Fold each of these.
Amino acid sequence: MVGRNRRARSRARSSQRGAREDCAGFTLVEVMAAAVVIAVAVLGASSAILSSAGLTRMNRDTEVARQAVRQQIEELQSVPFREVFAAYNDDLADDAGLTVPAPGPGFDVPGLTPVDGDEDGMCGRIFLPVDPLGDPWVLREDLDDEQLGLPLDLDLDGVIDGTNQAADYMLLPVRVEVRWVGLAGERSTELMTVIAER
């Protein structure tokens, strides 16, 4: 009886040992399946991270552009009213006698890339009521320009005519635009306002 108990215990131990040996490792198929699952998870996470980084960059660029537009409007409003048109139009001949620098209509926006083919290589531009095919020193109130709110009686004389209002304007419509190339291609933001003498 003692011998039989020993043999039974011995068989039970070797049976347990065999069962443990069968479960001790992973098969190659299990390892490859786990590797595929991990790879898919890593690719999904990295794709989400890259997408998030791109969206963050686009949002940052847009905020930089909006801030540049607001700063330019504030700068325009800080210039003596009678000098705004001459200081920010395309004509250099009417800059004599200004009490402020005359930067012209273009301005740079650090951190943004100008659109290819931009004539002055700057992202920002100030648009004034001048005929794009006419003289840059002629301020026109009779233009048909919805973006500037024209036609508009700029000298407040009750008549909208085609004469040059550069010397006697009382209102000055201004549109400030920033155009740049970002991750999603060409983008732009703008703001239109009317400046009046204070």
Amino acid sequence: MAGALAKRGWRLVVDARGAEDLAAVADELSTRTNVVAVAGDVSDEQHRKQLIDAVGGGRLDLLVNNASLLGPSPQPRLADYDLDTLRRVYDVNVFGPLRLTQLALPLLRASAGHVVNVTSDAAVEAYEGWGGYGSSKAAFEQWSKVLANEEPAIRVWWVDPGDMNTQMHQEAFPGEDISDRQPPEAVAPALLALIDHDPPSGRYQAAQFLVPA
């Protein structure tokens, strides 16, 4: 999505936990637009403030909360889930994005901006073995709904991108071949279409905005 926005000339602030991978992406994006890369973990308050500081007090049109932590691999049943580990999942999937959004709200209100929260079907489906991750995404969606009601001046969208061939998805299915899943870049057009259509705050599936080949 960052690449797609760069093609449109958006100024970007991007982050990731992996500093080397982030630097490589930022170098590529910098050939198209102004980009600031800030490596770190969204569960860390200092990192969250660094991201807001990187906006530089300027206009903030879009905040994308895409950070996710799967938890243990393979996924444990709830009866066996270590609660300290589960707290870490919630720190990344629920509390970190909420706190970052809190910090960004003054800028988002000023620009009538948009929040895209990347969720999962595990938030609404009770998949065996997905209780930790799924419940965190359910909480993520619930605060998205409440925020949408509390902040009518901005758009809040929580978007299910569908199955994708990502490292996290591979960790969810260790040893299995997931090459039949779509690559992340296949979903970017749907997220751009969401921005272009600017529908009311709510839950959307990327497939709703993808035109079949």
Amino acid sequence: MIVKAIATRKFLPPKDDLLSLIKESFLNIKLKEETIIIVTSKIVSIWQGRCIKISDKVNKDELVKREADFYISRDQVPNKVVMLTIKDNILIPMAGIDESNANGYYILWPKDPFEAAKEINDFIKKTYKLKNLGIIISDSHTTPQRNGIVGIGIAYHGFYPLRDYRGTKDIFGRALKMTQTNIVDSLASSAVFEMGEGAEQTPIAIIEDVKDIKFGNFNERNLLIMDKDADIYAPLIKSIKWKKYR
């Protein structure tokens, strides 16, 4: 598997054109069939104009409450550093709102990221005459009881998101009953590591030669979402008194 981060011009909030950025940045790149392209959520949000100027008139915590599906206040978080939220079935601080590389704006999470992933996929396939292509919209994410961030995929399009081992056997002949590989987050993590978190200016990555990917018109978020009552982490999630913005 080959992961390549793609350098681009500065992508400027509050609004910029992602499709033209892709064309500009891919001038000297020959895209192969069955490539997976990773695009950071931040540049998708700027493309959508999901940016709010930072000022004394904007209360960030109130903004987080409006953007989150569910939240708990800073008072319940160690050192009150963030609000903990659930958005689009993902546990993430501050509803994904970010200020880094944002030039004085709050960058919200993309609106309907699955539809955005489809639009990007359709554009690249048409522009570069490709039949099989995958898109992942990525973001950085913290892991409980671990230092540092890893990448996750908040949306995808163009390939089946899971590799299913259920019904197969391990090397000693034991039948596997539950194991599925989350392809979306696995690839997003490798791409986010390559793209970096600071001033690298590489918000797009290309992944080639990924084995065992089933390409097609897959875009259903429910394929990745675990039923909340079947989730082994349900006791932890349900033990928190989540609030919802009225």
